[in-house]
Model the fold of this input.
Amino acid sequence: MIERDLTELVTQRLAQYPAVALLGPRQVGKTTLARTVAARYENALMLDLERASDRAALDQPELFLAAHRDRLLVLDEVQLLPGLFAALRPEIDTDRRPGRFLLLGSASGNLLRQSGESLAGRVSYLELTPLRASEMGTTDLADLQALWLRGGYPLSVLARTDEASFVWRQDFIHSFLQRDLPDMGVRVPAETLRRFWQMLAHLQGQMFNASQLGQSLGGASHTTATRYLDVLVDAMMVRRLPPHLPNLGKRLVKSPKVYLRDSGLLHALLGLATVKDLQGHPVAGASWEGFVVEQVAGQLPPDARLSFYRTAAGAEIDLVIEHRARRIGVEIKFASAPKPTKGFWQALDDLSLDRAYVVAPVPRRYPLGGGVEVLPVSEVATLLR
Done:
């Protein structure tokens, strides 16, 4: 079993808070991680709310929760019982001991809103991402290439062959559209969302233009396209990366960028089953950029902010990390000998960053000049150190 970096943080938060909410898409490993954490608690009880029998146990949630105050309760797929949050609030207020509830949810905006309204100040939120290079111990470039191709879902990356991985991802996409989204209350035809998702795949790393996408969907309005994007962002399938907007008196790009968060699902939507297919495809560079964005995002503390910077004059940097008093810039290059553009150096002058890096498929880190270092993906965990 692969040890997830988040395991110790979940344990630490349970020692501080009455409830911890672990959010992430289906099949990303939340249940496995929760079992690892629950094994450290005596008499922990785990309920899978996809099972009718476990949901029936919570028909009278006030009575059930009160009867198990001496145990860690792990509630899996908690978004299927949204009314449960109203019962959790008074129960936690009655007994605010830390380590009482571990809530697992296939994240959605609706889930966060409901839990936020009911459990403000009582719950700590953590996000479990697909597997990252650091968790896989991936330092070899061939292994990194395989992780990039297959993405980070455990059953995909650990599949016996590339073909088996590709088939699993195709099945996952079908199940997600046909079953998971309707379970979250999404009432958009599955084929419509699939088309929209594929359009985003072709536009990986580009600015989101709602009007243009709506027209490509057959004349849908820009508000409809934005709503579809919200659905995929809430389900943690797509990252909407906001622009960095410092008060510089410059003309700044203010539209967000969009990335499919898992490179394996991106490749499955585009029909790219092998490394050879990927290397010859126009999306390869943008796919690598999105892959690195997720490697970086997965390493950041919960209070860090991530954005990109671009001006109308051409100054740009792919990622700006803000954490408390520090600002760090990250440029992403799909090249073994990366050479940042003039716009990158101009962005460094504009932003007065504390540090800046170029992340590329290189075997080791080295100085580039001007206070900038080139980093391999395996070392992105060092960005905030």
The CA atoms of residues 79 and 105 lie 6 Å apart. The chain has two domains: 6-127, 133-382. The radius of gyration is 22 Å. The longest helix spans residues 162-183.
